[in-house]
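Narrative summary of target 7.
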Amino acid sequence: MTTPSIQRPTTTAFFVQSALSFGLSLVALMIGITRLPVGPWERGFLALGSVFVVSSAFTLAKCVRDRQEVAEVTNRVDKARIDKILIEQDVFRPGKV
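Modeled conformation, tokenized:
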């Protein structure tokens, strides 16, 4: 008994929209940092802070995805174990009273 693979609800349009919005927001942030009326030290601090925020967001997204995948695999294994137990305990099998 094979179970079908879980289909992710992510479409190409959603992926393109996400990529474009990320790129646009990053460009807008960089333009905002360069046009601020502050010195180079402040600009550098803001730029490094934005790099740290972006890399942290990617890391968090990866951790959430990995945790969901582990939960899916665990659920599949548990379902397979329950199915095996139910098949072994078939109450309608002849001679089982």
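The CA atoms of residues 33 and 45 lie 10 Å apart.
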